[in-house]
Design brief:
33% of the residues lie in helices and 30% in strands. The chain has ten helices and 19 strands. Helix 1 runs parallel beside helix 5 and helix 6 crosses helix 7.
């Protein structure tokens, strides 16, 4: 049985010579963000109905966000439509993976905690405003990252960061989804982390052995700018390269200094952090066969070696005209 819950069809206002705007297949994740989902849904419906735009919601059953995104992408492929993700970075990642697999455009109505992908591309965070932007949008190619055939929009990592995310989700379950809660949880995880990874690394064809607390690969200029990575590295992200960060073995005081540097936007100057632009990064280990890998806030177990690279083709993302986009912040 189809997972489509509801549909809104209106007569096209376009002339007979122009094709009707593409139908929107919306995945609204009830677990994303702090705003009640009935308010988000109402805001989306009001804007789309007022514009006479065809749309359908695709049901998200508990624990089945991936299946819902795949269903939406199949419908979009068959109907020449658009997959629309209404949720946080994890939901948007699932929808992007499905849109990439079925080669259909992705629309974004960001409702998460940090919303880095939406912010970088100038998209509004208010549901009604984001929907209005979507109505004026056209598909544009956007670079995405790739780790063992798993797509990421913002970042992917091993080591400290997946642990940080797992701890954050536990805290959010108890205390709620607020940015300050996420930040306090991250600080606690960082201060408690002791593990060091001994990895065999190939960086753009050069082999070396690396001892590190974490390997962080980023595809988001805004995130890199916020933490203070150098402009010469940031400028290459999105132009066929990704940014990589590794963290050396550090004691408690070095950890506190690193946190302060990140908050002040000066992490690129921190001695314990190595940052670089790269095309490919392969990570293996002589002792470990599988590792936890974080991709846009979701943690998965993957077989080694891991190969981080730019995806073989861009993702088609629905973006409004440049003059309508908000400044990244």
């Amino acid at each position: 049985m189809s997972a489509v819950l509801s549909a809104q069809t209106a007569e096209s206002r376009s002339s007979g010579a122009s094709p009707a705007p593409a139908e929107l297949f919306i995945v609204l994740n009830p677990g994303s963000g702090a705003r009640p989902k009935d308010e988000v849904r109402q805001a989306i419906e009001q804007e789309l109905s007022a514009a006479g735009r065809r749309f359908r919601y695709v049901e998200v059953r508990p624990g089945r966000i991936v299946a819902a995104c795949q269903e939406a992408a199949r419908l979009a492929r068959d109907e020449n439509g658009v997959v629309v993700a209404a949720g946080g970075d994890g939901t948007i990642n699932c929808a992007a993976q499905a849109a990439f697999t079925h080669d259909v455009p992705l629309g974004v109505i960001a409702q998460g905690t940090f919303n880095l992908f939406a912010r970088e591309h100038g998209l509004a965070l208010d549901a009604a405003e984001a929907t209005r932007m979507l109505l004026a949008a056209q598909p544009e190619p956007v670079q995405v990252g790739w780790v063992n055939q798993r797509l990421f929009l913002v970042n992917a990592s091993v080591g400290l960061y997946p642990k940080l995310l797992a701890d954050r989700e536990q805290v959010k379950t108890r205390l709620g989804r607020r940015r300050w809660i996420a930040m306090l949880s991250a600080l606690r995880s960082l201060l408690e982390w002791q593990r060091q990874l001994l990895l065999d690394v190939e960086l753009d064809g050069q082999l070396k052995q690396l001892r590190t607390a974490s390997v962080f690969v980023c595809n988001n200029r805004l995130q890199l700018q916020r933490i203070g990575i150098g402009d010469e590295i940031v400028a290459q992200v999105g132009e066929g390269r990704l940014a990589g960060l590794t963290v050396r073995s550090i004691d408690l005081w070095a950890k506190l200094r690193m946190v302060a540097s990140a908050l002040l936007g000066r992490l690129g100057d921190e001695r314990a952090v190595d940052s670089f632009a790269m095309r490919t990064l392969s990570v293996g280990s002589r002792r470990i066969r599988r590792m936890s890998v974080a991709t846009d806030g979701e943690v998965l177990r993957m077989e080694l070696p891991l190969r981080f690279t730019v995806a073989p083709r861009p993702l088609k993302v629905m973006l409004p005209p440049v003059e309508q986009r908000l400044p990244p912040e």
